[in-house]
Amino acid sequence: MNSFYVFSGKKIKRNLIVLVAAIFAIGIIYLESGNVSVFSEEAPSAVYSVPTDKKVIALTFDISWGDKRTEPILKVLQENKVQKATFFLSSPWSKTHPEIVTAIKDAGYEIGSHGHRHENYTSLTEEQIRKEISTAHSILTDLTGKEPNLLRLPNGDFDKRVLQVANSLNYQVVQWDTDSLDWKNPGVQTIVDRVVSKAHPGDIVLLHASDSSKQTHEALPAIIDKLKNQGYEFVTVSELLNHSSVEGKEVRDQASGQ
Fold it and tell me: Is 237 in contact with 60 (CB distance < 8 Å)?
């Protein structure tokens, strides 16, 4: 009787090992099938925030059209002694507003790329994606005298193909963890409350300096004041990335409907 139980125990253990190995193999096949792409340290990733205990935060401003909002925003930043922020500029806008690009650069703020045409990159072929990023890169480099290496995609739209192409062109894709929703013009206090309530150490805040965002420059003084009172230091995105490894999020291929 004892020998029977010993034999059965060994058999059960062997079967469990086979079962675990089979499950592991199925998992690998599933991931490699392209159904899900999860960020890893080796794979290109988009930055949403940086895990850190230090109270540092990056204010970012997207600009794709208009010439009425950038100057007031620059004035607010300078009057409130915020010397570090990151502006993501679309290249067609930059080409038609070189004086504003120069003003941003001369004020010492970081400039990143907001791409060329303002359309969703997931709808483009890899060659088209490469052309969009490269065209913007050339224009911004000519205007600023410095090659940008940060990319805020139009509408924040991307999939793993976009990340791979951007990475091959030495770009880091930058998203955001706090969306001010200022482009909706929901009211100055609403913008202030939303940003301040969601802000956290290592955060990247999305704001806009295009003409469609009519309340951003009015909300900005209170945002700056409240965050300063909470002990936050304003840094550029590049400086933020130096604090720690980036925090990635899962990406699903939109082309496959995932």
Answer: yes
Distances (CA, A) of 44 to 32, 38, 67, 217: 16, 10, 34, 34
Please give the structure tokens belonging to residue 73.
Answer: 């925003």
Query: Could you list the residue range(s) of the whole structural domain that residue 14 is in?
Result: 1-33
pLDDT in tens, 228-257: 999 999 999 999 998 765 554 444 443 333
Instruction: Please indicate whether residue 53 is annotated as part of the active site.
Output: no
* Dihedral, 89, 91, 97, 99 alpha carbons, nearest 10: 70
Domain count, the chain: 2
State the chain's mean pLDDT as an integer: 85
Q: Give the integer Cα–Cα distance in Å for 38 and 248.
A: 9
For residues 7 and 77, membership in a common domain is answered with: no
Model confidence over 44-58: pLDDT tens digits?
999 999 999 999 999
Active-site position among 62, 159, 177, 182: 62
The whole-number pLDDT of residue 89 equals 98
- Catalytic: 137? no
Of 116, 137, 208, 217, which is the active-site residue? 208
